[in-house]
Design a protein that fits this description.
The protein is built from ten helices and ten strands. It is of the alpha+beta class.
Length: about 270
């Protein structure tokens, strides 16, 4: 039995938690998918066969799938397994792998750093900030996995375009002006004419903080302005500032300031005479 739960989704990608309870030792009937995929194991192990070549998949080995590829699975160990399956559109695959790139190998080694990157993607999915936090962590994970599988892989636009200082300045201007494209890493990168991978890396190198954290800094400043101005519904405030919900606003402000919006409102209130 196979179950799948979507953890985060946007038009360019879907991240799902997949649980499989099959325990058949023989190869199952062939399956053919129409998407690019990166699949990492969280628990258990199983076998995957493509082009007649079997491979063992467990927490130390991830695999990549491409459209039109025939694959078979077997679960001789039993006990079930749990995986994170990341489905990509061809456009996002080109961003990560480069134009017309196909993996030279289907399995990639999951070392400690890649394991941590996987866990960071799952943690970011729990924040609710799909357009920035999840996307930024996801691009790092995809670069590491696809980079192992595609010989000479370089994210599209990684070496082209404007210098980093002017790129980061343009991104800051768009975020500061609340440009609609600044609501997500992918549309912001498109607005600036660079790959999202390049934009994310440039931000960290130039400012020492991630683009996600910088954007949250700007949003927190706006939230403090409005809390300082008086009573306002936190749900309305969260929606106006682009948080997924009131809880997301509260988590973000507590992470950055150590206080909830309610506590901050009290701190900002004028002292009683």
């Amino acid at each position: 039995m196979l179950t799948s739960t979507v953890l985060a989704a946007r038009p360019d990608f879907h991240i799902s938690a997949v649980n499989c309870r099959d325990d058949h030792t023989r190869w199952a009937p062939a399956e053919v998918r129409d998407d690019y995929r990166v699949v990492l194991v969280r628990r258990g192990r199983f076998r995957r066969q493509t082009a007649g070549i079997p491979a063992e998949v467990d927490r130390t080995m991830a695999y990549l799938g491409v459209p039109g590829e025939e694959e078979r699975f077997a679960h001789p160990a039993g006990g079930g397994d749990e995986c994170t399956s990341i489905s990509l559109t061809p456009a996002l695959w080109r961003v990560v792998a480069g134009e017309d790139a196909r993996p030279a190998r289907r399995s990639v080694y999951v070392g400690p750093r890649l394991d941590l990157a996987h866990r960071r993607v799952l943690a970011s999915a729990r924040t609710g900030d799909v357009d920035h936090a999840v996307t930024e962590e996801l691009l790092g994970l995809l670069s590491a996995t696809v980079g192992q599988a595609v010989d000479g892989a370089a994210p599209a636009g990684a070496r082209a375009g404007r210098d980093e200082a002017s790129l980061v300045a343009a991104a800051r201007e768009a975020i500061g002006a609340a440009h609609p494209a600044s609501e997500g890493l992918l549309p912001l990168a498109e607005l600036l004419g660079v790959s999202p991978y390049r934009l994310s890396r440039s931000f960290t190198r130039e400012l020492g903080v991630s683009l996600t954290r910088y954007r949250n800094r700007v949003r927190i400043g706006r939230a403090l302005d409005r809390l300082d101005a008086g009573g306002e519904s936190l749900a309305v405030l969260a929606a106006d500032l682009g948080f997924s919900d009131q809880a997301h606003l509260c988590r973000t402000m507590r992470e950055h300031l150590g206080h909830t919006p309610t506590a901050l409102r009290r701190l900002l209130a004028p002292p009683s005479p």
